[in-house]
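Comment thread on ticket #2218

A.B. wrote:
> Attaching the input chain for the structure job we discussed in standup.
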Amino acid sequence: MVISSIIIFAWLIKPLIGYIIDHFFNKRIWVFIALVFDIVLVLLVGLFKLPLFLLVVILMINSANAAFRDVAVDGIMCVEGKRYSATGKIQSVQWISISIAGLLTGIGGGFIADKWGYQAGYLCLAPVYVLVGIPAYFYKEDDYMTVEKAASTLVADLKRLFTDKRLLIIALFIFLYRYSPSFGTPLFFIQRDSFHWSKIWIGALGTISTVFGIIGALLYYRFSRKINIKKWLFWSVFLGALTTLSYLYYTPASAVIYDVLYSLLGMFIYIMAMDFMARNSIPGLEATSFALLCSVSNLAIIASNLSGAYFLSILSLKWLIVLSAATSFLCLPLIRRIK
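C.D. wrote:
> Ran it. Output below, let me know if you need it in another format.
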């Protein structure tokens, strides 16, 4: 847990990464820089037997590098998505791709690691990063900003970012919308110890849920331009509370239904919230403002996990589920203030 926390630290400072990407060079150049680092790092891990300390350092650098790549791509999504009114469609494609890649990685990566070892798995990533660079090469973007110009606009941009009342209201809304004391870990132990499910079946159910998540993303791609996001966010609060309360009735049969159905609904609602955040990114500071909202969302998830662990120790699982459902409504007063 400590090692994994160290490795993902860079993802907690995504707004800073976003500001660097918005103001130095351009987003395409950052994608190329990240891909070059990706190739170097996977070659190091793939070709050399590294002691644990160096392995953790390299994985931490690789995680930071992936955060740069992620923020740069999201910045492109915000710019082009708002230009063509297609932030929802682009994000649907992103999450469909991520889900499919996750399935391929789980199956192919597991096979390669089992047959040839983890180092071979890392080496197989090098040509993938080269392939990713091909479409990035053809993406055209404005000329990059000079270092002197970027430095001179720092104070003005920070003032613009943190005095934007609309963005701050949206950030607070996103935190409250995402926050709900978590009870996911106890459900895993119920599946294992009470239902006596095997690891194979739990993994297979996760794969099936991923497939239905892809279907949810496809549905959002189809309807993203036709829905009223503000209205759907409002009703999704009630839907979220209802689905949370449904876990009060948790049996082997209902667990399968919940995993499958809620994966579809969850992906649709998740992309809708991400679309909402992308549409409200600040012009000229797209990577920064979107990364800021994403960090607020991630902070809400961390708060949900920590508070869920705390309340589970003093409440029963049943009352934790009720509390989790009740906190779903905390964001409702802010919806009317969102334009």
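A.B. wrote:
> Thanks. Noting for the ticket: The longest helix spans residues 52-83.
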